[in-house]
Amino acid sequence: MVGALSAIAFFSHMAYAAAPFKLAVIEGFSGANAAGGEAVFRNLVWAVERVNARDGVKLALERYDSKGQTEEALSALRSAIDGGARVILQGNSSGVAASLIDAINKHNEREPTRRVLFLNYSAVLPELTNEKCSFWHFRFDAHADMRMAALMESIKEDRALKSVYIIGQDYSFGQAVAREARRQLNLVRPDVQIVGDELHPLGKVKDFIPYATKIKASGAQAVITGNFTTDLSLLIKAAKDVGFEGKFYTFYGNALGAPAAIGDSGLGKVVAVADWLPNVPTAGSEAFYKAFRARYPQPADDYVHMRMHLMVEALAQAIDATVKQSGNENAIDLVAVGAQLERAKVTLGGQTGSMRTSDHQFQQTLVVGVMERQGSPGVKFDVEGSGYGFKVVKTIAAAAAELPTTCKMQRP
User: Fold this and answer.
1) 2-142+287-364 CATH choice from 3.40.50.10860, 1.20.1250.20, 3.40.50.2300, 3.40.50.1400
2) Does residue 338 carry a pLDDT above 80?
3) What is the DSSP-derived secondary structure letter of residue 56?
4) What is the pLDDT of residues 266-290, one digit of tens each?
5) Are 165 and 224 in contact, with CB atoms under 8 Å apart?
6) Are 141 and 307 contacting, i.e. CB atoms less than 8 angstroms apart?
7) With DSSP H G I counted as helix, E B as strand and the rest as coil, what are the percentages for the chain, rounded to 5?
8) What angle do the packed helices 2-13 and 306-326 form, to 10 degrees?
9) What is the DSSP string of 341-392?
């Protein structure tokens, strides 16, 4: 018994002698969403740096440019595996994520000695942890239906709201957001009229004035959209230009150019749902955000998402636990790591989340924020040096944000 305890103590404080555990992030580092890819990479770099600064597993992060295209992502997957990657990280496209899940399932069955895990930080198509769920895939973002339900908590309370316009990107995720917006509106606010409902090409529209003109002409009092990066900021800017004065209920209105694009006309009008916001009013959250800004002081680099850091912490925790159990840092079994990861519980910056074993959907608190001027009550920090930040107006506990799953997990 003493020997076993000594071994546990040794492995809990050891600096691994083995080669670093390789992670490969596959993202669009060029193309329409290049800014989003680079922003993700900064978060992952800092998360890995923190892990590597302490005893335990050492991680090596490599990047592969998918150009935002599925075929490029699949090619990058093959290159990453050939290069020794053990974990694949991706998230900025649900379509790409779905293809990666299929490819990784087939690869792991075909080559059990070179298995990989897939950690997803942003691809929120609900089916990825429902009918397409996989033992090898772990999602650390709330999926689209969970995010929509959180937004509906605010819409439900806006009794003056009588009409909305639904607009999104024409691919699997945008279509899912539109469907869920219609479904949930019918449940929680059947009195609200949908006066417009359309999709536009993903990442290809340069001028949103025609769309914004239709939104204004419809008489909508609010817009519901899952748009992200330039598709969101250009839409909001066009709405401002045509004089639309309604609210925007968004999944991603709190970053990557959107606040600066809309300016003062967005005060009190742009609503965003997130797993975390810089103005979450806790000491741990503030310390975490200040540390990120110390690492990346340029305002343009101010894009931080807690879930990406919880994800890397959960992975490091799972690897360390696997090594402690096996006593072999040179032959880390990915099935064992997956078994640890599917019951992970992690805390960072005052935020706690846990992986649901049944479907590998991370469960965490969600918050809804409203855009306000920096310095106003509840807005200590702005976004990207814009002078605008998001005041937290609603917090949805993890248990309340949780939704049922249809996953029937097949385990190796």
Assistant:
1) 3.40.50.2300
2) yes
3) B
4) 899 999 999 999 999 999 999 999 9
5) yes
6) yes
7) 45, 20, 35
8) 140
9) HTT-EEEETTEEEEEETTTTEEEE-EEEEEEEETTSTT--S-STTSSEEEEE
